[in-house]
Amino acid sequence: MDEQSNIITLSMSSDLYSKAAEISAQRRPYAVATVIRAQGSSSAKQGSKAIIDAQGKMVMGWVGGGCAESAVRAEALKCIEQERPQLITLDMQDELLGVGMPCGGVMDVYIEPVLPKPELLIVGHGRIAEALASMGSLMGFFVTVNDPAAEKQAFATADRLIQEDFDLTESAIDSRTFVVIATLHKNDHVWLQKALENEAAYVALIASAHRARLVLDYLLVAGVAAEKVERVWAPAGLDLGAATPEEIALSIMSQMVSIRRGGSGKALKLGREVEAAAKASTAADKVIRQCEAGEKI
Question: What is the pTM of this model?
Answer without folding.
Answer: 0.75
